Amino acid sequence: MKIKSIISMLAGVAMLFSLSSCFDLEETVYDKIPSDTFGKNKAEVEAIIGPVYNTLKKYFSSNWLYLSECTGDMAINPTRKGGDWFDGGRYRDLHMHTWTPQTGTLRGCWDAATQSISSCNLIYATIETSQSISDVDKKAALAEIRGVRAFWLYCLMDAFGNVPLAVDFKDTSLPETKTRQEVFDYIVRELDEIKDLLRSDVSSASYGKFTKGAAYTLLAKMYLNAEAWGVHTKKTNNWQEVVNACDAVMGLAYVLEPSWKTNFQIKNETSREAILSACYSANDTEDKNTLHLRTLHYKDNLALGGTWSAWNGICAATDYAKLFEEGDQRLKGSFLIGEMKDPATGQVLMTAHDRPLVHYIDVIQIEGSQYKGSVWGQVNQEDGYRCYKWPYDKATLGAMENDFIIFRLADVYLMKAEALVRMGGDNGAATKLVNAIRERGFGNASHNYTSVTLEQVALERKLELAWECFSRQDCIRFGTFQNARYLKPDTKGKEHLKIFPVPQMALDANRNLKQNPGY
């Protein structure tokens, strides 16, 4: 049966968050459904929930990627020779930690999260009031929606700290700013309430869903970062709570895939390491996976056999790429490196500036290209290792087929190892977990540790999780976020930079919101 009563409702709930931009009027959500006919089986209920899961596609390859990797130490989006990617200095500001309430990337992240939360609220209300959905199906569906909403609240709280907590579709009053502590408490409470209501299977049927594994993984994230966020919990030992949550995930049917690349391949929905995924399609027309366009040089497609037209942007930060040891398969598995050759001639391609298209590790500013009043200048078009973690289908045009795995088991292993080390727990168990990841990366046990330190756990997270949107959070937790690095000054003492300012357009739209201290 097809739904016949589908209308676009997001504009009607804009007041829930007073977003800095309008809701996406093209997003289809379900408001008026035939209450006497639709929702009588699980397939129909899943159709209603579909837009909730589509919100996860807003998380990767665009603003949230830049917010994590470029403000952390993983990546840089340099200004290319000719001025490409300067964009008013927005990427410079992310890298140099000079962002303001007007920085466009911050607005994009705020909008993506708040729009997604509003979508969850709307569909939650639709299902909650439906007369045709059984109590059993309704209970399960509402738990899933709460889980996805908790994820977006976690993203918003992690980045912006003090944020609105509007979770009632029926409440159309302008929301007020809640403290990070209040939002933290709400998310933990939600996860505790739903974790045992969610499905626990690891199968094609549960892939892309918010499951028990996703709830426990998010709980682990909450307790792992609680101290860095400056919030208090009701637990006596946050690190033990991380261990407990990770053990719950590891007790499910997830497996560490023998081949690391299974998690990133074009058809990566087969991965049993995946805990929560954003499911993309090559046929997507909005909220697409456009990573190939954002990172590859204008002519890389010729070397790779594709016909897309890339934009030549984001690349690996030099010092980050240098962390990978010789023999670590994750180096070439994460980055596009070296000469880009024309398959027809075997010759190295040339850039528009008549330079060989060779992706070297260094990103070097062109002398005299600095923008007025800044140390930031332009770099040659070919500079920097490009993202190659997700293989590019030659048939890809504007959208990639590869899904983005938001949470996966390797991250859970490393979270548990970190918690064990931080609390002075079983170092043997922590070492075994890190070595499981490390051995897969190198393809042998010759680089295994005999015991593991906190610094080695931090390093393994970098090697394993490049490009996966954890850099900023990890840098803050391990105390390196404010360190000086290429073009970025030491910002120690400027604690307000650990959270971003509320975008100015959001403040202008809703006077009940408060700006974060320091901005």
What does this structure look like?
- The protein has helices spanning 42-54, 63-69, 90-96, 104-128, 135-160, 180-194, 212-229, 238-250, 291-295, 300-304, 318-321, 329-334, 409-422, 427-442, 454-465, 471-477, 504-509; strands at 75-76, 79-80, 163-164, 177-178, 274-278, 315-316, 335-336, 338-339, 358-359, 378-379, 386-387, 404-408.
- The protein is mainly alpha-helical and 519 residues long.
- The strands form 6 sheets. The protein has a two-stranded antiparallel ribbon with strand order 1-6. A two-stranded parallel ribbon has the order 2-10.
- The radius of gyration is 23 Å and the shape is globular.
- Mean pLDDT is 93; it is low at 1-32.
- What strand order characterises the main sheet? 1-6
Rg is: 23 Å
Helical segment tally? 17
**Which H/E pattern describes the elements?**
HHEEHHHEEHHHEHHEHHEEEEEEHHHHH
Secondary-structure-based class equals mainly alpha
Report the oligomer. single chain
Please report which band the strand proportion falls in: under 5%, 5-15%, 15-25%, 25-35%, 35-45% or over 45%: 5-15%
Low-confidence stretches: 1-32
